[in-house]
Design a protein that fits this description.
Elements lengths: L6 E9 L5 E9 L3 E7 L10 H11 L1 E7 L19 H17 L7 E6 L5 H4 L8 E5 L12 H19 L1 E2 L9 E2 H11 L13 H6 L4 E7 L7 H8 L7 E6 L1 H4 L14 H12 L4
Parallel strand pairs: 3-4, 3-5, 5-6, 6-9, 9-10
Antiparallel strand pairs: 1-2, 2-4, 7-8
Helix pairs in contact: 4-5
Length: about 290
């Protein structure tokens, strides 16, 4: 790529409010664009987002971008002596706010935008830090109810007939079952429990999700992919309908327009730099 701004990257460690150590990669530059926090999809390592983060800093002059692994995923493993069971909700309630704070320390008070893929579109509300973002780009936003996908029985079986028994027997769910990185069993079981209900975690009173989503006033761009078997229009609407006080724009991209298959995770492949990344970054950067 033709770099117009200096860029450095380094691995960082930071603790959450409940003292769980997380690992992230901080990409820093000499531009004066916004800070950008990239929150991952479920069971997806932060390395998937490296090229996109580099592109923001090196080619668009972003001040810094941070990718990070949720607790129990990839390079944020459980440390010896940790006693409390890991839950999926912790990714939003503890991990995302800690990442905001870690990025904030790079340039206190500087403008900040967010990018969240799949589960990363849910943490905006649950993390309680939505007011820190000027804009938030959601890639494949959705709830996790199995019946909203285009592969409902396959998803139901993977989650509940294969994943849950393995989680109960071994304490972990390995990546080879086809749902991403190896996950702690307690995280997976909460994910699958939410996914069995048509209203997902909005039906879990302990989450207070309807209230949290209603508090968000951040401007949102939601991107859907027409060949995404998980992030279907009904799965997307099941989530976005709860952002009742946010200004939301939705766009759908097809493989023919993008120049190749996209699917649920493909947006962040560098091959889509011109077709998919460019208009999304224009929006993030207030250029439209």
């Amino acid at each position: 790529m033709d770099t117009r701004y200096a860029i450095t990257s380094r691995e960082i460690r930071f603790n959450t409010a409940d003292q769980f150590p997380l690992t992230g990669t901080l990409f820093s530059g000499n531009g004066n664009g916004p800070l950008a926090l990239i929150s991952s999809a479920a069971a997806v390592p932060r390395t998937i987002y490296t090229r996109f983060a580099e592109h923001l800093v090196a080619d668009h002059g972003y001040r810094a971008a941070l990718t990070y692994d949720y607790r129990g995923v990839a390079r944020s493993p459980v440390q010896p002596g940790w006693r409390r069971p890991l839950l999926m909700r912790d990714w939003a309630l503890f991990d995302m706010p800690a990442a905001v704070d870690a990025l904030e320390r790079e340039a206190p008070g500087h403008a900040m935008v967010g990018i969240g893929q799949s589960f990363g579109s849910q943490v905006l509300a649950l993390g309680g830090r939505a007011d820190r973002f000027d804009r938030y780009l959601m890639v494949a936003p959705m709830t996790g109810h199995w019946a909203n996908t285009n592969e409902p029985w396959k998803v139901f079986a993977l989650m509940n007939l294969i994943g849950v028994p393995i989680a109960m027997l071994t304490g972990n769910v390995p990546g080879w079952i086809g749902l991403g990185e190896t996950l702690p069993g307690t995280v997976f079981r909460e994910w699958s429990r939410w996914g069995r209900h048509p209203e997902y975690f909005f039906a879990d009173p302990s989450m207070n999700a309807i209230h949290r989503f209603g508090e968000v006033t951040t401007t949102i761009l939601a991107l859907g992919m027409t060949d995404d078997p998980w992030g279907t229009p009904r799965a997307q609407q099941a989530l976005l309908k709860h952002y009742t006080n946010a200004q939301i724009e939705t766009r759908w991209h097809a493989p023919g327009e993008a120049g190749g298959k996209i699917g649920h995770l493909g947006f962040f492949r560098q091959t889509f730099r011109d077709s998919l990344w460019a208009p999304a970054i224009d929006w993030l950067s207030l250029r439209r």
